[in-house]
Amino acid sequence: MAFFPPSLENLIDKFAALPGVGKKSAQRLAFYVLSLPDGESERFAQAILDAKKSVHCCPVCQNLTDGEKCAVCADEKRDKGVICVVAEPRDVLSFERGREYKGVYHVLHGVMSPMNHIGPDDLKISELVERVSMGGVEEVIMATNPDTEGDTTAMYVSRLLKPFGVKVSRLAYGIPVGSNLEYADEATLSRALEGRREM
User: Fold this and answer.
1) Is the pLDDT of residue 171 over 50?
2) pLDDT of residue 177
3) End-to-end distance of the chain based on CA atoms, in angstroms?
4) Model confidence over 110-137: pLDDT tens digits?
5) Which of 28, 50, 94, 195 has its CA 20 to 30 A from that of 44?
């Protein structure tokens, strides 16, 4: 027997489908949205629709943008000879908060995970290889999470890039194994960047 009207149950289910949101949190979010004044709830819904319509992948680095290129790729002061490869767009934000890294990025949009049926073709790896093959890249820093999937992805990408004669390095393990870059503080990320090693 349903406790709530079908439309509310549907809203709860949509929130519960979000990563890291359980059933109780989904209920709280749904009730909060229902309590918003009409104008505010419409702006909330419109913000989702606008983001979905205008945000796309940068044609250069695959980060999210609503422009022709993302802000990092469009910045002429960035060192285009160093590419930091990350798994997700939110990882770029983690590095940018530290204000230490002056190179550019490449976002894979995931990591290889045979258990989840995610292989190299499901990621933005071919775009990275094409980018490096065009020349001008001196170093590629593999900054995937220090876990099994992140290490596997880093090793796979480094093998693909070796023929191009670029230095491929891995972040030093100043970041605890099994943790996510999203939660690392700026000091830890800076130490990890400084202590990177060639693969």
Assistant:
1) yes
2) 67
3) 57
4) 999 988 899 989 999 999 999 999 989 9
5) 94
Task: Return d(Cα 96, Cα 134) in angstroms, integer.
Answer: 26
Record the tokens describing residue 185, joined without a space. Answer: 């503080």
Distances, alpha carbon 136 to alpha carbons 133, 140, 173, 174, in Å: 9, 11, 28, 29
The Cα 63–Cα 89 span in angstroms is: 6
**Residue labelled with tokens 């993302």:** 70
Q: What is the pTM of this model?
A: 0.77
Three-state secondary structure string covering the chain: CCCCCHHHHHHHHHHHCCCCCCHHHHHHHHHHHHHCCHHHHHHHHHHHHHHHHHCEECCCCCCEECCCCCHHHHCCCCEEEEEEEECCHHHHHHHHHHCCCCEEEEECCCCCEHHHCECHHHCCHHHHHHHHHCCCCCEEEECCCCCHHHHHHHHHHHHHHHHHCCEEEECCCCCCCCCCHHHCCHHHHHHHHHCCEEC
